[in-house]
Sequence to fold (497 residues):
Amino acid sequence: MSPVPLSGPESGETVPGGGQVARYNPARVYELVGTVPAASPEQVDRLVQAADAAQRPWAATPAHERAALLRAAADTVEPHLPTLAELLARESGKVLADCRGEIGFALTFLRWVADRAPGVLADTEVDDTAGRLLQRRRPYGVVAAITPWNAPIILSLLKIGPALAAGNTVVVKPSPLAPLTIDRVVRLLAGALPPDLLHAVHGGTEAGAALVGHPLVRKVAFTGGDRAARHVAATAATQTTPTVLELGGNDPVLLLGDADLSPEPMRRLVMASFATSGQVCMAAKRLYLPESRREEFLDAYLDAAREVLCLGDPLADGVSMGPVVSAEAAARVNGLVENAVARGGGALPLGRVDPGTDLRAGHFVTPTLLVGVPEDAPVVTEEQFGPTVPLLLYRDESDLVARANAGELGLGASVWSADEERAFALARRLEAGFVFVNTHNRTGMSLRAPFGGVKRSGYGREYGDEGITEYTQTCVVHAPAAFRSGGAGAAANAYPA
Ligand code: NAD
Fold:
């Protein structure tokens, strides 16, 4: 059966009937990058059963041995980094340097988990006048990981690493829009581990639903959009399987009156919105600026964008922004910009274009800064997930927090100020899981800082110690003092004193 393009002119999802998932290059839509086998529900079932059978012996392996195996698994991926990065760039449209960075960061994360997990997961025991209390962290069993296309390696390893370290086994279903590189990474990792600890299954909603609803799956870790999340949570609920949901954001950037608008922070701010063509959950998605600094800001921002933003083929030298992932994504983002302009806004094109790239060959969208857009325009109220960002002005700070907190999403935010105390005080009032200070997006990430949303941006955390304990349940063994040898005893059925 010939593969069907997922993002080209004949866009489809998976080839029906257990065929291939094909991925075409979003920068050159007729170029087939590769295929992976699409999993039928029967194949999903077989792999979940195998993962379930492997889980108990894995959980019984001491935590430091599991950690050593994970470190060795990370080492097997490392030599392949250059070829993996190129494959990721061709299937996702992300620029080569970002792809290298993502895979390198994912391996660093895996090693960090291996170092950290044995201590974080260790039993705790107290023995005192109240009795003896043992608390241990028990793995769930088989974890299903459902991941999006925009950072398939790190977003999969954020689940795979902690879940395996804690004694779970994992079946991951990547997005059909970027299945190729993660498939290779999973194979490399799995090859360095005992059999059946880790598998990948491919396909769209059918494969995802078969995995999430499988009775042997004990926990579902999902990263993606709100619509899919509701289906995933509902399917998981049919088996009362717990979920962790990492969803979209509409991150506000609060530039205070004393924010530094010099070139270096401005370059950081531009990339905070336009890295991966704006298709990042924690991208800077709304810019709030004091009205008095409008002209100064526009000059500085447009200059910085000319320096750091170059639209073109992700594999070309000097390109910092590739296409968006699909024709649908391009149409959606262009629609948001057109709507903003129709409502009286202005769209200022940003950056440069690589002269060697034929922009008509792929899903390229001109990056824009939107000015004069009403606050109720969809580009302000919704996650744009693409290369455009609205600039919104404020006169005084009285309603700034309310405007920043408006809406249902609460993933990230940032406060930019010369006064760190003031920035931290304001940050505490923001409804966001992660507030950056004087930066935003990937330059502000930290392995030790738990990441996740509030409100409709999801629940549960990745990164940090919480990102490890997320894959365990605390179980207790308790001998109350009253009933231990020599204890005072108590009346039957009495509450403890
Ligand atoms: P998506 O929701 O379309 O797909 C995510 C995954 O869910 C894919 O693997 C998809 O095949 C699968 N899926 C879809 N429907 C399903 C169903 N009914 N049952 C089981 N699986 C199903 O997301 P996307 O377009 O790949 O990614 C973009 C979204 O992800 C954005 O909203 C972005 O903000 C969000 N995101 C969030 C984070 C975070 O950490 N919070 C990180 C990256 C992306």
